[in-house]
Amino acid sequence: MKKTLAILLLLALVFTVAACQPKTDGPATEPSEEEIELKDLFTQILEKSGNEEMLGDSFMFDPVNQEEAGWLIGAESIDGSFEEGYALHPMINVHPFAMGMFRLAAGEDADGFAKELSSKADLRKWICVGADAMTAATKGQTVLFVMGSPDEVSSILEASGFTPVS
């Protein structure tokens, strides 16, 4: 009798726990950077870093091609290639800031591309002002490049979750 009662109580406990579990429609995972639109990822990072004002009217936020990516970092050109890129920089003012995000094709060397951006970047690309800090970082096939004040660069890098290249 005690065995039967113990088994019934155990079954009741199992069914109670099973009934109280929330219903899931599959794995509840965040989409990876490769699944998120590059423009949306860019926006999320700026908002998370507290720099959402940079998405306003005093900044230009546009897709970039190979030639424009060189101009963004202050280089004559870049050798590495990317499938998609976005750039953010101030319109005519004295704010030394530039940010680019690039998605490379599968199998391309993201670290190598980031290192090229770092080595060719000119922190004094502007006529009257210069950036004080710069970083290039990767996450999967996505490369982030930022130059500006130390606070801007560190807050954006921290919010991105990307790994800086050395």
Tell me what you see in this structure.
The protein is of the alpha+beta class and 166 residues long. The protein has one domain (33-164). Helices cover 36% and strands 20% of the residues. It has helices spanning 2-19, 38-49, 66-73, 110-120, 150-160; strands spanning 59-63, 84-90, 98-103, 133-139, 142-148, 163-164. Strands 1-2-3-5-4-6 form a six-stranded antiparallel sheet, sandwiched between helices. A hairpin with a 2-residue loop joins strand 4 and strand 5 (142-148). Helix 2 packs across helix 5. The chain starts with a helix and ends with a strand. 30% of the residues are buried. The model has no long low-confidence stretch (mean pLDDT 85).
What is the helix/strand order?
HHEHEEHEEHE
Structural class: alpha+beta
Percent range for β-strand residues? 15-25%
Calculate the terminal CA-CA distance, rounded to whole Å.
71 Å
Number of domains: 1
Topology diagram in text:
Blueprint: H1 2-19, H2 38-49, E1 59-63, H3 66-73, E2 84-90, E3 98-103, H4 110-120, E4 133-139, E5 142-148, H5 150-160, E6 163-164
Helix pairs in contact: 2-5
Short description:
It is built from 5 helices and 6 strands.
Short descriptors:
elongated, 6-stranded antiparallel β-sheet, 166 residues, 36% helix
